[in-house]
Design brief:
The complex is a heterotrimer. Helix content of chain A is about 80%, strand content about 0%. By secondary structure, chain A is an all-alpha fold. The relative contact order of chain A is 0.14. Chain C folds into 3 domains: about 1-85 and about 165-180 and about 190-235, 3-Layer(aba) Sandwich (Rossmann fold); about 95-160, no CATH class; about 240-285, no CATH class. The chains are: A mainly alpha, B mainly alpha, C alpha/beta. The complex binds adenosine-5'-diphosphate and magnesium ion (MG).
Amino acid sequence: MPVLSHSAVPLMLRPALVVFFRQLLCWRTMWRQYLILRLVEPAIFFYGLGAGFAMLIPQIGGFDYKTFLLPGSIAMSLMFGSLIDGSYGAYVRIFMQRTWPSFLATPTRIAHIMAGEMAFIGMRSVLSATMLLLAGMMLGAKVSVLGFILALPVIVLLAITLMAVGYVATGLARSIDDFDFVWAFVLTPMMVFSGALVDLRVYPEPIQWLAQFLPLTHGVAAIRGLLLGTIGPLGVFGHMAALLAILAVCATLAHHLLKQRLTD
Amino acid sequence: MTSVIYLRDFFANIRPILLRFGYEYRTVWKAQIVRDLIDRLLYLFAFGFGMGALVTSMDGMPYLTFLVPGIAASTGVFVMTMAMTYGVWERSTSYKLYPAWLATPVRLPQILMAELLYATLRTLPSILILFLLAGFVLGAIPSFWGAVLALPVLMLANLAFGAIAMCFTVHIYRPLHFAYVNTLWATPMFLFSGVFFDLSQAPAPLYWFSQALPLTHVISLVRPLLTGQELTALQVVTDLGVLLTLFIGGYAYACWRFQKRLLD
Amino acid sequence: MTTPQPAIQAKGLTKTYKPRGGGPVVEAVKGIDFVVKKGTCTGLLGPNGAGKSTTMKMLMGLTQRSGGTLDIFGHDAAGLSREERTRIALVPQDDNLDPDLTVSENLMVYGMLFGISRAVLKDRVPQILQYMQLTEKADARVNQLSGGMKRRLTIGRALVNDPDLLFLDEPTTGLDPQARVMIWQRILELKKQGKTLLLTTHYMDEAQRLCDHIIMIDHGKVLDEGSPAQLIDKHVKKHVFDVTKPIPLDLPPVDSEDVGDSVLFYVEDGATFRKKLPEDATYLHRPANMEDVFLRLTGRKLRD
Ligand SMILES: Nc1ncnc2c1ncn2[C@@H]1O[C@H](COP(=O)(O)OP(=O)(O)O)[C@@H](O)[C@H]1O
Ligand SMILES: [Mg+2]
């Protein structure tokens, strides 16, 4: 692997760091839009569904619906931000603007670019999750701030994992229209079957089992557990291990696919 | 006499553009129907069964029966919004097809009308499939003839949704900003128009807000039609009036602004 | 007998672009007058940004003019009737083919936009494909075509309505020599059929070969116009000597221009000037052409 041909570790990381800064530079012109979209979209779900169902469903698992919904909204917002950047965003950077090929004409390798972009997404997700937490608390959700701080590693891991899922889609996509299928078969199913909006336990058993393969399910479970104080350390580590496994599979697969696409 | 010639030319010029869309549809129709329908079906299952387990009855009917008309009505919101924002942008600006078409005897209002008609026709198969599924498989549409009557109402509604989306498009100069239309217009409308819960029980501010959203007026017609609830003549006239006004007004405004923008 | 009505007549034509959200306005066309006679090929020549495409767009009614008058077939270009519009076609500078359709569908739809019936098009589309040597690609999608094929298709598309007046905005830019020669043949054939053509190009050999009349514009203004021969006669002498530096000291005082590595000398009598050059001088002797006129009129400074 060319990545390993640099023996010194700092040297190996350097191109990734450059990619990180490149993303940061781009974000200078777009952060306003990003924050508005990533804040408003889940807030609308949160308020729209929360207000309607709060009257009908007084309690889910001992919590009012709004409190139950907030961790799910945070996880959903991470999903939109990361998965869309890993799919649409990366597709534009790779095949339309041809930013990746221009990087690859330098000692930078595909793994560097993926690592740098993922690091950036991880950082951005902390920012948007914090904003959503504050907004949700102002709208009346009663969650633990300490739990949120403990959830930050999960938040970053979830964002990076979803980005890797997006990269897989990019590796497979033949045109930008193919990402409609990401909406249809990845984003929306995750939204409705991960337990972000409704308690997973209302679904039939087989669906509950299938849901365990969705990264968002584990993200929601860990973040909700920490924010509501209903999960122990073992549970959190369990979900993080599941996320790490999905991340490892998707990142490897995406690297393989993208390498093929970019070198053939 | 001139108006007769105008009308004759108007429809003569729309035909080739519709044919053009027909050629396109011929190659993409399967994927198109999946794209247009899949997320509606997911919402129907997730909420119909998920929430349906918790909310047994809504407005005096099973929750799934309550949900079907709202989901059907919201199909057009998303399909039309996508087609009239990204789609129109793509054809007018990225592919520069509008300038190509305007170099022939075709005029802009004819192009925009063809866009509206095609996208509206495109929603028909999706809605039909949804109706067949909900009616015959799930048994959630009590009134067959009501469903038949609902089809023209939904077509008018979709023309109106398309015309409104066009009004956003004429003011948007960066494709990045189309995400706002989805997030700040289509999604809130979907969540606040009584798709998921009975508005008459909502808090007053939410109730009045919902009355300002066109989707509310579609649902207030389509739900009684499909479920066999009573529908007053006043209600029919008001709601159809609102939709017709939005369609004509939105179309006229979009034509006027788009003309200015293209010829500038 | 009255003089025949020109195909195009522009008087004091101006176009000002006002950027959205403030910023300096761009005066792309600053009051130009010109006439395009029926049945001729007229070249609109000028450096990048001179205002050629803007003029074309105003002619097509694709952009609103800011001032002046512009008549096509004796009627205001912005208010042509449907019938008049079916007699005009444009080959735009950037291809705007329909990527969702195949090659022949592109022609089919475009023909119908001109109001031509499908029955007529069923015959005409294959003819045009043949004429533009695209028959094998009839069922290919546009993004499977090479740049040259796309250009040929765009030109073919502009012929689908058999126009009397044809605007060609840089039809051969970026094409290989084979494709250029083929397109020249087509343009000359159209001229023979009595069509009126307005052409822009950056290739002076092309302009000299195809155009009866040339209008030189720069910075939105007409610099000069006339037939290629008239313009060469007027602005440069018959012969050009491109003499590599160092320049011999005792040359006669003639019209000359320093272009860096060498100096160009424009002279009427080539044989006499050559005798004045020392034996060991390095030089190139050629007849003057439109390129010399163009650079003379518009200067050598880079645009864009
Ligand atoms: N849509 C536009 N908005 C603003 N300025 C424009 C626009 N189109 C052209 N221009 C400007 O008008 C001038 C003339 O452009 P153009 O007609 O395209 O030149 P040419 O075709 O001769 O190269 C240029 O300075 C260009 O930047
Ligand atoms: Mg130009």
